[in-house]
């Protein structure tokens, strides 16, 4: 399932840290957040898009998603398993966010970037971090902070030793990221209204042609498909959690007719809304 954008994450406690295993069919729409996100691939491969570049990650590869980076995950039929660690940048001393493009040329470090002992140390740190989060024994927060700092410190030092620390960031890339952050925020607020690419580009003060290419490259799908996926996620939730009629749900999610709602729902979910409701009632 694709979920959706500025993500406002909820944590199980006031301690802003979370760790999860993700599997091959994990898919997430393009979004961004202040938190830092680290990904370690245990087996198989998965696809991730970060700031207009798509990467294929394999076992032993690591992705570092900094504060404000726009990213998405695309599910794969191949078996894959990875650890995702998400935390507020203040945990590593960056109260206002960790902009990793100031430190790394690439947000992805492949397994070949590490010596065997380095690879094992980083892998164990990820495993210990998720173990602490899942079991939450006494002092687990301090252990989690320790593992996160170890991972980030090792990645920074290894990158520095290999001469891959970034000294300057392309101004155009920063501008494009800002455009897309504003675009996703606007779409999140207006997706259930009659919005289109041309009007959105005008609000962002860019040409429709430029915005269309930038959007596709950053999000991994075109503008209309992204809107439809957001609407379907909302419809999915309403069908499962409310007794409202399908026509009411269609209107509230931004569709002008029940016919178009049925067509898009089936194309995205592979089942009609009425059948989906029957299966989940």
TrEMBL record:
Keywords of this protein's UniProt record, alphabetized? DNA-binding, Transcription, Transcription regulation
Superkingdom of origin organism: Bacteria
Q: Which PROSITE patterns match?
A: HTH_ARAC_FAMILY_2 (PS01124)
InterPro entries documented for this protein: Cupin_2, Homeodomain-like_sf, HTH-like, HTH_AraC, RmlC-like_jellyroll, Tscrpt_reg_AraC-type_HTH
Which Pfam families does the protein's record reference?
A: Cupin_2, HTH_18
Q: Which residues form the HTH araC/xylS-type domain?
A: 181-279
**One MF term in the entry's GO annotations:** sequence-specific DNA binding
Matching SMART domains: HTH_ARAC
Q: What is this protein called?
A: HTH araC/xylS-type domain-containing protein
Q: Which organism is it from?
A: Paenibacillus selenitireducens
